[in-house]
Design brief:
NfeD family protein, 149 residues, 21% strand, transmembrane helix, single chain, NA-bd_OB-fold, five-stranded mixed barrel
Length: 149
């Protein structure tokens, strides 16, 4: 019965981690699963709690730094950006007039929804713009300081 309670606690902690961005609660879930294993082997409750505490503590100190290192954006970690990260900071060509609410640009042959960064600027078809960030499927753009090539 104790093993089932530890498993339920581990699942609850894993679900709770899905609603946070800390990468901390999941390690207590790992500890709960380890304690469930100890309970399944017939360990007394005190030993289960010690296993929970030790595995949770070791997981936090040993694994969390590794997880956080790999969770950083590529530009911060020095890796080569890919996906949406690779688009940010790049350039696009305006296809349909861009204002603070809508527009369309072409980035590396793909068409993207776009809107201006400050909401006031307007960009006309043919202009080059710089992608400041990507918000969902919309590129937030600003005038490119480099002249049109």
């Amino acid at each position: 019965m104790e093993a089932v309670l530890w498993i339920v606690l581990g699942i609850a902690l894993a679900i709770a981690e899905a609603f946070t961005a800390t990468f901390l609660i999941i390690f207590f879930g790992i500890g709960a699963f380890a304690a469930a294993g100890a309970a399944a082997l017939g360990a007394p409750l005190l030993l289960q709690v010690i296993v929970f505490a030790l595995v949770s503590g070791l997981s936090v100190t040993a694994l969390r730094p590794i997880v956080l290192k790999h969770a950083r954006p590529a530009l911060e970690s020095g890796d080569t950006p890919f996906g949406v990260e690779a688009i940010e900071g790049g350039h696009g060509t305006v296809l349909e007039e861009i204002d603070g609410e809508h527009g369309m640009i072409k980035i590396d042959g793909e068409h993207w929804q776009a809107r201006s960064f400050d909401g006031q600027e307007k960009y006309l078809p043919g202009e080059r713009v710089r992608i400041i960030k990507v918000d969902g499927a919309t590129a937030i753009v600003w005038r490119d300081d480099i002249s049109n090539l």
